[in-house]
Amino acid sequence: MLNFFNGTATAMITPFAKDGSVNFDAFGRMIEYQIENGTDVLVILGTTGEPATLTEAEKEAVMRFSVEKIAGRAKIVFGSGSNCTAHAVEASRKAEEMGADGLLIVTPYYNKCTQNGIFEYYKAVSDAVNIPIICYNVPPRTGVNILPPTMERIASLKNIAGIKEACGNMEQICETARRIRGKCDLYSGDDNLNLPILAIGGAGLISVASNIIPRQTKELYLAVQAGDLKKANELQDKMLPVIDAMFMEVNPIPAKAAADLIGLDGGIPRAPLTQLEPEHLEVMKRVLRDFGLNV
Known about the structure:
The protein is α/β, with parallel strands linked by helices. It has a single domain (7-226), classed as TIM Barrel, CATH 3.20.20.70. It is 46% helix and 13% strand. Helix 3 (85-98) links the parallel strand 3 and strand 4 (102-106). The termini are far apart. The model has no long low-confidence stretch (mean pLDDT 97).
């Protein structure tokens, strides 16, 4: 399926309070910040949202809060992937019941299944739900890579809306784009590659950096859509130091620190993730100030 969304999506962090619980006040402010700055889709409980360390009760509470707070002002995509197909199916059904507009489903991680196993995983979830599904390919974190012929097969399933590509290999991404063109959409899942992925026909961006700079992320998308590559390159050049800083340590450690610095109360990541190292915090402060943000 095509055109589930065109534009920008933010892979939302999940803020935690000092006692370790989900900080819903801070999360509400983050949601408003995104909507006010033109973000089209909020991706909640994706890997940036630390779902691996949230209980099922906490995930349900986050989903319920998100649906009530967003209230139709932006599309909602819930993460529901797993290294267990049965659990991914169950989580996806729950997300649909809770009011998701779509699902972001990461490949099964750690198990390192075959390409046929990847297809069967997505087929099982597709058969179980009726809302759009975006596949998420991020082999550096999962150990599994959706190869272009496999994504072409997956694109034939009834409600596959696209693929969030974060494999880091533009040659592979170009081949995937060629094979799925006209069947489902391609989304950038790597902020460093936002511009080239849009340039080869990407329908949108699913961004970590847009937790902090959502307006500029949307401007980049709009510049490409308008055919203004000069402006798009200028925007990407300005954004790259911020993007690089977002990944100086494992995601979402830097994004949460950056959110704290601009007043969004990102909070401390859950163990085994730790706070941003002091030397990296100083780098983050400098980068955000140089970008023009109040820190």
